[in-house]
Hints:
mainly alpha, His-Me finger endonuclease fold, 2 domains, two-stranded antiparallel sheet, 9 helices, 2 strands
Amino acid sequence: MRDAKKAREYNRAWYLRNIEKMRAYNAAHARKPEVQERRAAKYQELRKDPEKVAELRKRSRDHYWANREKILVRHKEQRDADIDGVRNKSLRRQYGLTLDQVEQMYVAQDGKCSICEETLDASKGSGKRFHVDHCHATGKVRALLCRRCNAGLGGFRDNPDWIRRAADYIERFR
């Protein structure tokens, strides 16, 4: 039992040290035509048998709930080990941007919010972390904002008339 635990710990540490190599290898392997054909054939065969699909889903769900705590800890370790990769994936999915593009925006804005010009912090856990502002109608990315300005725009639903009226209101009671 003890040897198995040591082996798991060693394997986990090795994986976390070599995560980039593993990702590169897996990505290259997955792009091979023979691997793609084999995978497609496997899924087509699987789709023909809904009972097998249901059985696999049940096994997967049962495994998750039986090992939930371990799985959540492992996922947190993986996220913490590769926080830039997680952030990059999130930015790409939400806004179609890479981490490098966002860093270029950050530098172009001199590390300041586009509205209030408060200094933004690029580190996680900071109360001044930047937010990517985008138009909810078109999805077009506009700039980087602080949390307060981003929430303010969201509260006004990106409506310029409401924002102008709010500014007039503030001026009136100054």
